[in-house]
Amino acid sequence: MASPPPVPPRPRSGSTEKPAVPPKPLSPARKKPAIPPRPLSDAIEGPPIPKKPIVPQRTPSYTKTRSTLSFTNLETGEIVYTRLVIVEGTLGPGSPNGSLSVSSDARSGFKACTWEINQGYFKALVPLIPGNNDLMFSWCRSDSDERGAENVKVVYDRPTTAPHVHLAIVAASDSPVWRNDGRKSPSVPRKPTSQTASNHISKDDKMSRFLSKATDKLDLASVSHGEPLDESERAIVDAPPGHRRRFFAPIHEGNDDKHNHLHRAQATRARWHPCFYIPTDPPLPYLTSNDQATWAQWNENEPSWTSTPDGALLKCDSGIGSLEIEFNDACKTHVEWLNLIPGDTDTQMPPRETLIDAAYLSQLVGFDVSHPSSPRVKLNAVACNMRQAELEDFRENGVARPVNINGFVSGKRQVFKTMHHGRMGDADQLWKLLFPHENDKYPEARLVAVKIYSGACVDGLVFDYGPTGGQARFGPCESGECFRFELRPGEGIQRIKVRAGWWLDACELVLTTGRSSGMRGNTTGGSLRVLEPPGQDGRIVGLYGTSGDWMNSIGAFVSS
Question: 161 lies in which domain range?
């Protein structure tokens, strides 16, 4: 049986002792009573709530935050204009994540890349067009497709009286960098010389050490005359005298490797004279032109890859700026084309085409790229108008491989299989087409028309051989718009332009006479790819690819 709880002793009679009183609990901190939310009807019909006076907010200032370096030409004393600035800032507190689009004023029509915004903060590397002093910034939310929701005009002061111009350069990182031979070496700071940094550099500027190291051997007078620069550490490598120079930027290690598409900005961007040409500048004829159509044409040109027996051919009418090289899913190095000789028309313009062969690429990466066990090498070309084109695997698609196809009239002419564009899935239907005028079985037949079924993508292709040859159908050929492109006697397909990603978004046929079918399909999807034979006397003798619910990939057989 449980015993009863103990009873506290009663005080004795006559005693002044009082019974123990339990202590009071501490009172909680006083809080303001929560105001219940007003119902919707009350909010509409009730008396208005007095609002606080609206205080006008200052527009966020988007200016250069890095220390600047001022200088003049040592010989002539003329103003030296820069074409690159660093812009960073915030869109205000509470700004959502999104993307930032940068473009210059409407006169130039130049549009730069897009940068991500993280909690309203952004940082951008922006090339300027000579003669323009303002840029237009627009940002949008990540969950909205609306563009231009908020426009902020950024004005940079271009001094007209002072004999100098401000220059902003990206700060360099203190992490180890990769040498040209693949070995890591720490950055060793050097003191700036009086010849190359005649004006002050802020002590707290993080990039002053890197700038002093990169400019230790540069002479402004020699640069202004366009003479070849001395070799600086991990900067300029061997190249033919008076020709383009290849420039290597430092590469970070670790987790930053996957973000090294911005590593080009961490190379020295101090351009002391207009002859020190940066790849993101447009060619000189576009710089001096005020024609809107000329600027629009320069902006629309896209780089393209074409596989040849000798290597991957890169073309872009707007000029090739740089080539980023990746292997093991990380960007390791890149090549830039710098034009150092002013007045020479052959070297003043950026190259419009260049051939990347296996020997040259192996020298850059440090291993044999054609070996079956070597890592996959990915090439990303950046044109002068900032448009890009990727080559996913150089060993698979960079070089056209010889094939043996029986029955061709070509005789002893070698037939090559070019790279394919699109996805070659295992479940897709593989198709192959040999043009009838190239085949011994149909000596009198010829290709008379091509039908392109397209909508959001290319749904199918139909090749009409005429009354004696029949038709060859690839893909469903059931949906989308049907466009019939007729070939005249003596005409053949000289070039095929496609826009492709995971499938064929659009297709364009270019004939030997120059006639074109126009781009049919989704003209804004995928990347521009070109199928064409090597050399002037080469021709396309057949096609191959895969199809499923639509056209997934396409390649070509060419003869040279």
Answer: 84-238+250-266
Alpha-carbon distance 445 to 439, whole Å? 9
Both tokens assigned to 239 = 């190249």
> What are the C-alpha distances in Å from 495 to residues 303, 306, 315?
15, 11, 14
Contact 397, 391 (CB under 8 A): yes
Position 153 in a domain? yes
Q: How far apart are CA 453 and CA 476, in angstroms?
A: 9
User: Scanning the structure block, which residue is given the tokens 């930032």?
Assistant: 100
Distant-in-sequence, close-in-space partners of 528: CB < 8 Å, separation ≥ 6:
302, 303, 304, 389, 497, 498, 499
What does pLDDT average to over the chain?
A: 59
Count of other CB atoms within 10 angstroms of residue 98: 20
Residues 341 and 487 reside in one and the same domain: no
pTM assigned to the model? 0.49
Residues 103 and 190 in one domain: yes
Q: Give how far the C-alpha of residue 250 lies from the chain's centroid of Cα atoms, to the nearest Å.
A: 18
* Four-residue CA torsion sign, 439, 444, 449, 451: negative
The model's confidence at residue 102, banded by pLDDT at 50, 70 and 90, is very low
Q: What are phi and psi of 352, to 5 degrees?
A: -95, -15
- Domain count for the chain, please give it: 3
Question: Which is higher by pLDDT, 555 or 334?
Answer: 555
324 contacts: CB under 8 Å, gap ≥ 6: 261, 264, 331, 334, 379, 380, 381, 382
Non-local (6+) Cβ contacts of 64 within 8 A are 85, 86, 87, 156, 166, 168
Listed in sequence order, the residues at least 6 apart from 233 whose beta carbon sits closer than 8 Å to its beta carbon are: 213
Same domain, 408 and 545: yes
* Residues 272-296: tens digit of each pLDDT: 223 334 444 555 555 556 666 777 7
Tokens of 507: 């297709």
- Percentage of the chain lying above the pLDDT 90 cut: 3
Terminal alpha carbon distance of the chain: 110
Q: What is the pLDDT of residue 508?
A: 93
The distance of Cα 452 from the centroid of its chain, to the nearest Å, equals 31
Q: Rounded CA gap, 297 and 469, in Å?
A: 41
Q: Please give the Cα distance from 284 to 342 (Å, whole number).
A: 11
Rounded CA-CA distance 454/484 in Å is 11
Same domain, 425 and 546: yes
Three-state DSSP at 50 gives coil
Question: Do 143 and 211 sit in the same domain of this protein?
Answer: yes
User: DSSP string spanning 185-201?
Assistant: E-----PPPTTT--S--
Highest mean pLDDT among 67-71, 96-100, 153-157, 289-293: 289-293
The SS3 assignment for 518 reads coil
**pLDDT at position 204:** 35
Among the three residues 397, 428, 462, which one is the final residue of a domain in this structure? 397
* Distance in angstroms (rounded) separating the CA atoms of residues 361 and 122: 35
- Sign of torsion over alpha carbons 306, 311, 312, 316: negative
**102 in the same domain as 162:** yes
